[in-house]
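Recap from last week: sequence in, structure out.
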Amino acid sequence: MMPSYDLLTIGHSNLAADRFMALLKNAGVSAVADVRSVPFSRWCPWFSAKQLAQRLAEEGMTYIQLGDALGGRPRDPKLYRDGVADYEAMATREEFAAGLGRVVDASERQRVCLLCAEREPLDCHRCLLVGRALVERGLAVGHIRADGTIETHAATEERLLAIGGADLFRDRAQNLAHAYRRRARAIAARLKD
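Predicted structure tokens:
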């Protein structure tokens, strides 16, 4: 039996435009919420906001930019710790909560998919920051993989625990929080010198 999801995520990476659209269609996506701080791609221009919105509209899908509220590259230098974007601090912002609210509201009417650039969910804030926050609010999140499979967020968290290193003296929740923090620190945006 296929799990049911309240919403999905996908990383466009360097996918061909037609393959990307096929992945969305096969997953039943009707709305794309772009959580890139800068919705632009120099190498794959079909993923730049204007072109992407047009193509999605042609396919009958809605496009919304939420990078200001849910992006992984904050403009406020106070949201960086030692030069690295601090996802835990970002998750406490009113703008972040409002962005999540928009996603949750939309997911009640449409099949929403969060979009970012990184292919691997564990290399992206859409999973480590936004997906985590949505799961904590009780939503079932799935990550569309490049091969067309959909990985449950719980399975993604198991992979995170496997690479994050478990401590026998911490419970699962503590190990998971530590693994999230460690992975975010490794992949998050950095302030330019």
